[in-house]
Write a structure and sequence with these properties.
heterodimer, A: 131 residues, Rossmann fold, 3 helices, 4 strands, 39% helix, globular, B: 222 residues, alpha/beta, 4-stranded parallel beta sheet, 7 strands, DUF5981 (chain B), Methylene-tetrahydrofolate reductase C-terminal-like domain-containing protein (chain B), iron-sulfur (chain A), oxidoreductase activity (chain A), iron-sulfur cluster binding (chain A)
């Protein structure tokens, strides 16, 4: 389907309480993996999500100043940069993985950003197909 | 320490394109400290190889291991258990480790996973800067501990070139002119006249001009 693709959402346990049902509009498959802190999300977790079939990976951590572990979300943001470099070297668009700061325990913010990211991924795939 | 940087993934993948079972081998020495070849980097490269191979529609089994060091035969001994199990090794050690594996395991195909860059200091998280070139004939006793071989773009031995301006290097404007710093430091110490001494010509043989460098200490051999 043109508007269907699989995405992985890797996030801190405290950023949101969203469930798959909240993201039911995203067709194709949504994998939510929660970690004790977004600082615990490794580059390998992002790469593995791609290998397991995700077209895009969204990494989410608590907004600046609200991370329980102080620098966890900052670390996650940096690791996404590392993952971008790797997937680009492997021939994938670096925009297929992004980091998002999310209001702590704000599921609405999380779902909104996931939907926006999903839309951007659809455009990337359309562009891919057009080439 | 020795600073290294991961090689481009397309090159690594090309080197191992024929193999279905490989070992990514890290080193807990210098390359672990400079975040190029320790346990975490082994895991990342192994996963990148799995993804890269999957994107090419190729199968691969990637084993992961990190040794204490790869520049010492003793610590490479455990590699024997992998010798028959894997078709190739991607080593994340510096070039010393890769060479030693090639020496000790002539039947094992070993490929470098990093480029060995320089001897450097870790000035901040994620930032390493060259501080020594390993030329084997140290002159920093005369230059206030600052090395013009490693830190001057022209390796000058007799003061700043005519191109430095405002204390900055003309080749690398983001770098200070090290000769400017040497002069300023010696001047502040009242030791500037030390630069008027005539030095013996620098011996470049220990820098590699005399072939392979070997050091033997009989007092340590048993």
């Amino acid at each position: 389907m043109e508007n269907s693709l699989k995405i992985a959402l890797l996030c801190c346990n405290y950023t949101n309480l969203a469930e798959r049902e909240d993201l039911a509009q995203l067709l194709g498959g949504v994998e939510i993996k929660r970690y004790p802190c977004s600082g615990h999300i490794e580059v390998t977790d992002i790469l593995r999500a791609f290998r397991e079939g995700a077209f895009g990976v969204m990494v989410a951590g608590c907004e600046k100043g609200s991370c329980h572990n102080v620098k966890g979300s900052k670390r996650a943001e940096r690791r996404v940069l590392g993952a971008k470099k790797i997937i680009e070297e492997l021939g994938l668009e670096p925009e297929r993985v992004e980091f998002f700061y999310i209001g702590r325990l704000d599921s609405g913010d999380f779902v909104e950003k996931a939907k926006n990211f999903y839309g951007r991924l659809l455009k990337i795939r359309l562009k891919e197909k057009a080439q | 320490m020795i600073i290294a940087e991961r090689r481009p993934l397309p090159e690594i993948l090309e080197n191992i394109s024929a193999y279905k079972k490989i070992l990514v081998l890290g080193c807990r020495g210098c390359v672990a400290v400079c975040s190029a070849g320790g346990d975490r980097e082994v895991a990342i490269l192994a996963e990148a190889i799995r993804l890269g191979k999957a994107l090419r529609g190729e199968e691969v089994e990637v084993l992961e291991k990190t040794f204490i060091r790869q520049c010492d035969p003793e610590y490479l001994e455990p590699l024997r258990e992998f010798e028959k199990e894997v078709e190739a090794v991607v080593s994340l050690a510096c070039g010393v480790g890769v060479n030693l594996i090639a020496d000790l395991f002539p039947n094992l195909r070993v490929y470098p996973g990093v480029d060995t860059s320089f001897y450097g200091a870790n000035l901040a998280l994620g930032e390493w800067v060259e501080r020594c070139r390993g030329c084997g004939d140290c002159i920093i006793d005369k230059t206030a501990g600052l090395c013009p071989i490693a830190r001057c773009a022209k390796n000058l031995l007799n003061g700043p070139c005519g191109g430095s301006q405002g204390g900055r290097c003309e080749v690398r404007k983001d770098m200070p002119c090290i000769w400017h710093e040497i002069v300023e430091r010696l001047k502040a110490r009242g030791e500037l006249e030390r630069l008027l001494e005539v030095w013996a010509a620098k011996d470049w043989r220990p820098a590699g001009g005399d072939g392979l460098r070997v050091r033997v200490r009989e007092d340590l051999r048993v």
